[in-house]
């Protein structure tokens, strides 16, 4: 993504940067909307530079709509890139990229499947090499904030684990080059919030188009409440933008009101407040932060 340089920029100088720059690293198209849709919509609307790097096209995902069930492999990857494009339009994000370009790393499939041994899949990728590709993005964008998964990838999917490793390694390499990312966050859900949301889901399940409910254990990144450092509340149009972005991933997600289901057809809550654990950088104040950029000065 290149922006035309403004006339007062010296030839050869980098284009002007926006004051606040947020980088999110995800495994598959749809993960960004489920985990961070409200956050991305909010910061994009506020004029921050929001950059999404997705590591694979998710071409081994299961397809929900019967009329699209014929899609698989490269055709599914291409279709999901179209879904991602529509989701980013819904969130107002124009800078989204596939790590190393579309198709560079293949979806690894669920943990334990023979797909994990595909030499072209992300699980088999050299982490330093992949982190080098991400470092190129970091050098260009110079984000102050990085968002990714915890070391278990939230729930143990090999591509999510690798996305975490690649993101954290790129952050290390950027710091070693002298331009550290000020704050690094992992996606989280506080246990008490998940439990109360599932209690409401069980009450409302008879009116929903889903036969069964998932459980708290099916939600990635659930931790004890004390570990949550930051929450981004869905205000204004952000919750609707998140729901629209999730709907855009129609091969993967079915949305119904405040709930959704993946291909396992188990209903779960659609969180319109998103939660984070700060793992690098300075926490501001005693309570939960309400801004990922809290405490970061506006640096050029
Ligand atoms: Zn995923």
From TrEMBL:
Coiled coil: none
EC number: 3.5.1.103
Catalytic reaction annotation: 1D-myo-inositol 2-acetamido-2-deoxy-alpha-D-glucopyranoside + H2O = 1D-myo-inositol 2-amino-2-deoxy-alpha-D-glucopyranoside + acetate
UniProt-annotated binding residues for Zn(2+): 28, 31, 160
Gene Ontology terms describing biological process: mycothiol biosynthetic process
Classification via SUPFAM superfamilies: LmbE-like (SSF102588)
Residue ranges crossing the lipid bilayer per the database entry: none
Binding note for cofactor: Binds 1 zinc ion per subunit.
The keyword Zinc is annotated on this UniProt entry: yes
Cofactors required: Zn(2+)
Molecular function GO terms recorded: N-acetylglucosaminylinositol deacetylase activity; zinc ion binding
Keywords: Hydrolase, Metal-binding, Zinc
Functional note: Catalyzes the deacetylation of 1D-myo-inositol 2-acetamido-2-deoxy-alpha-D-glucopyranoside (GlcNAc-Ins) in the mycothiol biosynthesis pathway.
NCBIfam families linked: mycothiol_MshB
Similarity annotation: Belongs to the MshB deacetylase family.
Protein name (record): 1D-myo-inositol 2-acetamido-2-deoxy-alpha-D-glucopyranoside deacetylase
Native organism: Streptomyces tagetis
């Amino acid at each position: 993504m290149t922006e035309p340089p403004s006339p007062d920029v010296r030839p050869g100088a980098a284009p002007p940067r926006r004051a606040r720059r947020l980088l999110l690293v995800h495994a598959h198209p749809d993960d960004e909307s489920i985990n961070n849709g409200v956050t991305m919509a909010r910061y994009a609307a506020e004029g921050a530079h929001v950059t999404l790097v997705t590591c694979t096209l998710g071409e081994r995902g299961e397809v929900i709509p019967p009329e699209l069930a014929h899609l698989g492999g490269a055709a599914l990857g291409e279709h999901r890139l179209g879904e991602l494009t529509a989701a980013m339009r819904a969130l107002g994000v124009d800078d989204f990229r596939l790590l190393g370009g579309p198709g560079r790393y293949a979806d690894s499939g669920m943990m334990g499947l023979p797909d994990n041994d595909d030499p072209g899949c992300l699980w088999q990728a050299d982490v330093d090499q992949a982190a080098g590709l991400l470092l190129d993005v970091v050098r260009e964008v110079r984000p102050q904030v990085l968002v990714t998964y915890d070391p278990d990838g939230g729930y143990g999917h090999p591509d999510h684990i690798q996305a975490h490793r690649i993101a954290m390694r790129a952050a290390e390499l950027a710091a070693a080059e002298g331009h550290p990312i000020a704050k690094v966050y992992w996606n989280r859900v506080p246990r008490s919030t998940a439990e109360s949301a599932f209690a409401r889901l069980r009450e409302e399940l008879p009116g929903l188009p889903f036969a069964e409910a998932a459980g708290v254990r099916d939600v990635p990144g659930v931790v004890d409440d004390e570990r949550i450092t930051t929450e981004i509340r869905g205000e204004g149009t952000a919750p609707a933008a998140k729901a629209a972005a999730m709907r855009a991933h129609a091969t993967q997600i079915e949305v119904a009101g405040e709930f959704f289901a993946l291909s396992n057809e188990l209903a779960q809550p659609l969180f319109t407040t998103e939660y984070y654990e700060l793992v690098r950088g300075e926490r501001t104040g005693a309570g939960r932060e309400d801004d990922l950029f809290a405490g970061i000065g506006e640096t050029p």
